[in-house]
Amino acid sequence: MTHVRPSSRRLRSAVAVAAGALALTVSALVQAGAAGDPPAAAAATEGVSSVTATDDTVTVAGSVAPGADVDVYALGIEQEVVDWASGTIVGRARADAGGAFSVAVPRDPAAGPDPLYHRYVAVVDGVPAGTYRHVDTLDLTPSSDRPYPDAVNKKGLQVKMTDDAEELGVQHAAINLVVNDLMLATEADPADTIRFESGGRTYYFDRSEVEKLDQQIKPLSDNGVLVSLILLARHPDQVPNPDNDVPELVHPDAALGGPGALLYGFNAVTPDGVRYFTAAMEFITQRWSGAEAENTHGLPRSWNEIVVPVAEWAGRSAVTRIEVSVAAPDATGPWPMQFQIDDLAYYTRTRS
Questions:
Q1: Which of 39, 70, 73, 287 is the right S-S partner for 87, CB 3.0 to 4.6 Å?
Q2: pLDDT per residue over 276-329, tens digit each?
Q3: Signal peptide position in this chain (predicted)?
Q4: CATH 2.60.40.10 boundaries in the chain
Q5: What is the number of other CB atoms lying within 10 angstroms of the CB of residue 102?
Q6: Is the dihedral of CA 156, 157, 159, 161 positive or negative?
Q7: How far is CA 285 from CA 122, 282, 322, in A?
């Protein structure tokens, strides 16, 4: 059992996967002891004010001076506004008489990084207007409209032995999911490898480790237990299979192997870290939250939040805060198909 504390409040909804794609936004990176949020775009008087995603388009809208020519840049989530010049121009527009502008960015996830995951900033005459903004409105086709179930009781455990949990009448089960236990650096044994496409690249997952999780999750969800997965990262040298050594998943400033270092922050500060993390989240949610998940691999209903204060969790450690939004929304029904972890935070558990 890990030292991760379970969430103090239940998440509002569980993950569903949009047809062929998963909306994943990773933001807010903080180092050296104190977590914080990215600048709030809503506070800006000019710039991007909304980013809406549909199945095939991301629409970026905002306001600048009337009649101004606007370049809309896409940035990686590891980039800040000051890095705008190294971003990619994804659209140009001329603001109308009221200052409003809008550009549409086509989505083709198979061709490269999905625009769903970018930060967007408006630039006028070589100067950023306001700050960046991520996708904030999701109008995607859900893979499922299954309702969120009602639990019979409040009894919950962190589960390893599913038969014991069922015998005890557990209705809520927490299961550790160590992300870098699942990923492979290369395709070592094709028979024991699951190939997965993300952002136009191929990633590899350890079939044996993935199926071990199936065997934990499915018996519980089949019996009506509400399963929560706890997403973790550990030292690359501590994974069960040497081929699972994917150091890109771990924050580069983590003091690997330091005193008390049991778990590590995910890497959302380098392009490689972001793409590996994105691929992992897409794979995990598609396998265990897709339309047929409950009939094939098992169906978790929520994902762990860590809401422990930084001082208690990390002390003076190097810290990374990651906010994740994984979504395939459906505005109708008793359980909207939108999953947002507003303050999911993984802190590098090391001492400085």
A1: 73
A2: 999 999 999 899 988 888 789 988 888 775 555 544 444 333 333 344 444 333
A3: 1-32
A4: 41-138
A5: 16
A6: negative
A7: 32, 5, 17
